[in-house]
């Protein structure tokens, strides 16, 4: 009960911020400027993660928000620690912003900057481990889409995330093996390099061993 009250209190606060940003452009601009002015990672708080998500959700400033986020990640101001803290302490609240979190992750993973794409990989992993079954499925589906994008770096990053999840959380990933096989990554084999195909079959073999299901590695 106490946990629900805490969640409700945070949601009410965020709803108030969301309403003010939605109806007053100057407040949205103020939040963007305030976030941009923070130059030290130790000064960024979990509320800043939510501010980014709210700005992304309720304004027409998606491009400026994406640019701000990339710059923050490159400069080391938005650390993985503040991201982990947001998921660990406010996972239920973050769930309310899952759709926007997923879109942001997709945008960041496409970045040619390895620092930025690496941050996206962390978001995907945290979202998969923290949220419900529906969200897990959406995360895996988004990662499979990245693999089929036709861009080698994007496919590599996505396969890295999937491999990490399969290796360390096979029981969770076994439910989504179909995404890696029929109507999944196997449909994109012609676009994958030998190394990427090898990584895919290692994943399938791991899940087959975990599930004691030899049919999983049959093409």
TrEMBL record:
InterPro entries: FANCD2. It is found in: Nucleus. GO terms for molecular function: DNA polymerase binding. Keywords: Isopeptide bond, Nucleus, Ubl conjugation. One of its GO terms (biological process) is mitotic intra-S DNA damage checkpoint signaling. One of its GO terms (cellular component) is nucleus. Belongs to the Fanconi anemia protein FANCD2 family. PANTHER family: FANCONI ANEMIA GROUP D2 PROTEIN. This is Fanconi anemia group D2. It comes from Paramuricea clavata (Red gorgonian). The lineage of its organism: Eukaryota, Metazoa, Cnidaria, Anthozoa, Octocorallia.
């Amino acid at each position: 009960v106490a946990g629900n009250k805490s969640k409700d209190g945070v949601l009410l606060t965020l709803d108030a911020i969301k309403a003010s940003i939605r109806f007053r452009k100057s407040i949205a601009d103020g939040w963007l400027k305030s976030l941009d002015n923070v130059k030290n990672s130790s000064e960024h708080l979990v509320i800043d993660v939510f501010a980014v998500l709210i700005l992304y959700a309720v304004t027409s400033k998606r491009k400026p928000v994406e640019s701000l986020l990339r710059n923050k990640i490159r400069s080391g101001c938005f650390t993985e620690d503040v991201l982990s803290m947001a998921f660990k302490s406010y996972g239920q609240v973050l769930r309310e912003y899952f759709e926007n979190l997923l879109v942001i992750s997709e945008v960041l993973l496409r970045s040619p900057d390895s620092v930025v794409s690496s941050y996206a990989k962390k978001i995907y992993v945290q979202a998969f481990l923290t949220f419900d079954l529906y969200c897990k499925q959406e995360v895996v589906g988004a990662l499979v889409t990245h693999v089929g994008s036709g861009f080698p770096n994007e496919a590599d990053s996505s396969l890295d995330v999937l491999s990490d999840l399969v290796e360390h959380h096979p029981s969770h990933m076994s439910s989504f093996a179909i995404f890696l096989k029929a109507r999944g990554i196997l449909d994109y084999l012609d676009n994958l390099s030998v190394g990427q195909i090898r990584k895919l079959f290692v994943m399938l073999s791991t899940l087959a061993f975990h599930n004691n299901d030899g049919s999983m590695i049959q093409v």
